[in-house]
Structures are given as structure tokens and as C-alpha cells.
Design a protein that fits this description.
The complex is a heterodimer of chains A (224) and B (126).
Chain A: E1 2-11, H1 14-29, E2 33-38, H2 45-58, E3 63-69, H3 74-80, E4 86-90, H4 99-105, E5 116-120, E6 137-143, H5 150-153, H6 155-160, E7 163-167, H7 179-189, E8 194-197, H8 206-220
Parallel strand pairs in A: 2-5, 2-6, 3-4, 3-5, 6-7, 7-8
Chain B: H1 4-20, E1 23-34, H2 41-52, E2 61-67, E3 70-73, E4 78-81, E5 100-102, E6 106-115, H3 117-125
Parallel strand pairs in B: 1-2
Antiparallel strand pairs in B: 1-6, 3-4, 3-5
Helix pairs in contact in B: 1-2
The chains are: A alpha/beta (224), B alpha+beta (126).
The complex binds guanosine-5'-triphosphate, magnesium ion and zinc ion.
């Protein structure tokens, strides 16, 4: 028996990364803009999406959603009420979505006919960080009920995201949330991060977020 | 235990490479782990022992090289090491820095494998 050293130089998650890169190309060919929503459980991903899907459809946009859930199809049913096509990934206890799970859910959808695809990740601020899904934007949500210091507790997730949304702003006073401190903490772990503030209950801040998403899509696909 | 899925991917990749090289067993795995990878070292080591059971990697050692986070400071015009991943400011001049130069690594750099003597000859002559 002989011992040898073998050089490898390979990302531990290269398999997922490659699949995600393939998806990203596919989305780009289809002119589809993809947003991956990540947050703690209960931050308001589904509530925000219910609003966004409905408003975008009312504007004549073609939108769809894929939602990851540990056990139930509650979120998928809530989102489907908007009339948008919605698919559910039940992860059976797995606490994040991976690119192959998403790829498996896209079959039969005419991606060319879609403008936006929203992916609601499983509520978890750790594991979804590691798994690229081929998205254009990773949007991290944080509610005013969770405490201002969440970004400092999960710096890796907040750093990996492209945009932050502070949710449930209708509860800011009730929760004695200091929004300035929350914004400062987000930017401490991600300097320059763009931050939106929304309430799915009152609708506050939604039009700004919507305008941003539309502008991002237009910037990527100027002729679409 | 968030790191279990990472350990499983690590084992899968290493086992594939080891088999291709005709290994009978993997003795050591070398990994570069950035402080901004989000992977906790101790949890990964624990997950590694679980994930290697019954594979070519069983009983092997995971050797982790930790990589600090470095950002590019536009004011100082160089890469600087962060003292904390909760504070992305240049430790020299205090300027907020978003551009990451190092620290995201989650990378296998190499493995030490045991091969039958004839297989090692084959590999060397190939
Ligand atoms: N007051 C208020 N409540 C909200 C708002 N957004 C969500 N909620 C409530 O917060 C709870 C969780 O909201 P969801 O939208 O299910 O949160 P989620 O992030 O999708 O949760 P998971 O998918 O389980 O991780 C529900 O009871 C919502 O009604 C908001 O803007 N204001
Ligand atoms: Mg939900
Ligand atoms: Zn500096």
C-alpha cells in the first residue's frame, strides 16, 4: 500500500454551483428575472409575496412562484389565490432549497412566457446561504418583531444577500423596534446594502419594492 | 446541525475523486474554510465523522485551514483583514468596505489516499 497526495481544488458545493449556473443561463435565455427570498421562519415571505404576485398580475406581468416548505402546502395555497402559477417543494425536513430541487419543479412551465419567478426559500438564515439557485437577486427579509441585532447574529446570510427588506413595519412602534439601529446593523455586515421597508398588512412600501424589481428586470433585459 | 449537508457534499466529492484515482482508502482531506463561508468548524468536524461512516473516507482526518476575511479598502488601496465579520469597516481607516477579497472559501484543496502498490505505479506512469 502506498500513500499519495492528490491535489483537487474544488468547491465543496461545486455540484450545486454548476447546476445553479445552468439554471441561471436557462433563466437568462428565457428573459426571466428570478428572486430568491430568504428569512427566518415567519418573517413574512409569503405575506409579501401574496401582495407582490397580485399587484404584478394586475399590471399584466407574468409571474410565478416556487415555495419551499418543510412539511405543509399552506404557503403554496396562500400564494395560488393570487391566480399565479405556484409550485411547492416539500423538503421533508431539509432546511433549505437546492438547485436540483428547483430544476425538478420547473418542468412543464413555459419559462419564455414568464417575466418573474419568485422562490420562497425555507425559513432559515443559515443553510440557504450556501445554495445558489440561479437567482438574479437574493432578497433577505427581516421583520421589526425579530430584534435589531439579527444581522449581527447572521452576518453571513445578510452579507450574501443583494437586497434587504424590513417587514411588518406596521408593528414598529408596538415592538419598540429602532429602525435606524436595524438599518445600521444590516449595513455593518453589508456596506451599502439597499434596504426596503414594507408592511404586507397596510401595503406600505410595496410600490417602492415593486418599482425596484421592475427596474432590475429592465436593466437586465432592456428589450423585453 | 446545519453542517451535515455540507459534510455530505464534501464526502461525495472526495469519494468520487478518490475512486477515480484508484484509492483503497482516504487518509486525510485538506480543506480551506473561510470565516465568511458560514460553516462552523467544530460542527463540520462532527458532521464529517457522521458522513464518512461506511465510505472510503471512514476513519480519515479532516484538516482545516481557516481563512480570515479580507476586504478591499478603496481608501487604503489595498486588501485588509477584517477583525470581525460583524463590522465590515477597514481596521486601518474606518471606511466601510463591501468588496470581499478572501474569506468565502469552502474548498477542498487535496486529499491523501492509499493506493495498492501496482495502482500507484500505474498512476505515476500514466
Ligand atoms: N402585522 C403584520 N403581520 C404580518 C405581516 N407580514 C406577515 N405577517 C404575519 O406574520 C405571520 C407569518 O407570516 P408569513 O408570511 O407566513 O411568514 P413566512 O416568512 O412566509 O413564514 P415561513 O414560510 O413559515 O417561514 C403571519 O401570521 C402573517 O399574517 C405584516 O406586514 N404585518
Ligand atoms: Mg412562508
Ligand atoms: Zn482603509
Amino acid at each position: 500500500m502506498a500513500t499519495r497526495y492528490l491535489e483537487i481544488r474544488q468547491g465543496v458545493l461545486s455540484k450545486n454551483d454548476q447546476l445553479a449556473a445552468g439554471l441561471r443561463e436557462r433563466f437568462a435565455r428565457a428573459g426571466l428575472f428570478v428572486v430568491n427570498l430568504v428569512s427566518s421562519p415567519g418573517t413574512g415571505k409569503t405575506a409579501l409575496l401574496e401582495r407582490l404576485l397580485a399587484e404584478m398580475r394586475a399590471m399584466g406581468l407574468h409571474v410565478a412562484a416556487v415555495v419551499g416548505d418543510l412539511q405543509t402546502d399552506n404557503d403554496a395555497r396562500r400564494l395560488a389565490r393570487s391566480g399565479a402559477p405556484v409550485r411547492q417543494i416539500t423538503t421533508d425536513g431539509m432546511c433549505h432549497l437546492e438547485a436540483d430541487m428547483l430544476a425538478g419543479k420547473l418542468e412543464g412551465w413555459d419559462l419564455d412566457a414568464l417575466d418573474f419567478l419568485f422562490i420562497e426559500n425555507v425559513g432559515n438564515l443559515v443553510c440557504p446561504t450556501w445554495y445558489d439557485l440561479g437567482e438574479d437577486i437574493r432578497l433577505v427579509l427581516l421583520s421589526v418583531t425579530e430584534g435589531e441585532d439579527k444581522p449581527l447574529k447572521y452576518p453571513v446570510m445578510f452579507n450574501s444577500a443583494d437586497v434587504a427588506v424590513i417587514t411588518k413595519t406596521d408593528l414598529t412602534a408596538a415592538c419598540e423596534c429602532n429602525l435606524d439601529a436595524m438599518r445600521a446593523n444590516i449595513r455593518a455586515v453589508r456596506p451599502g446594502m439597499l434596504i426596503f421597508e414594507t408592511s404586507a398588512k397596510t401595503g406600505a412600501g410595496l410600490s417602492e419594492l415593486l418599482a425596484f424589481l421592475l427596474a432590475q428586470r429592465r436593466a437586465k433585459y432592456p428589450t423585453a | 446541525m446545519h453542517e451535515l449537508s455540507i459534510a455530505a457534499s464534501l464526502v461525495e466529492s472526495v469519494e468520487q475523486a478518490a475512486r477515480r484515482a484508484g484509492a483503497q482508502r482516504v487518509a486525510r482531506v485538506f480543506l480551506r474554510l473561510g470565516a465568511l463561508s458560514g460553516v462552523a468548524k467544530d460542527a463540520l468536524l462532527f458532521g464529517y465523522d457522521v458522513a464518512t461512516a461506511g465510505t472510503l473516507l471512514e476513519g480519515s482526518r479532516l484538516v482545516i485551514e481557516e481563512v480570515a476575511v479580507a476586504v478591499h479598502c478603496e481608501t487604503c488601496r489595498r486588501d485588509v483583514k477584517l477583525s470581525s465579520i460583524q463590522d465590515f469597516r477597514c481596521p486601518v481607516c474606518g471606511q466601510p468596505c463591501a468588496q470581499i477579497a478572501a474569506g468565502r472559501e469552502l474548498e477542498i484543496t487535496g486529499i491523501e489516499i492509499e493506493v495498492a502498490d501496482d495502482a500507484s505505479l500505474q498512476a505515476e506512469s500514466a
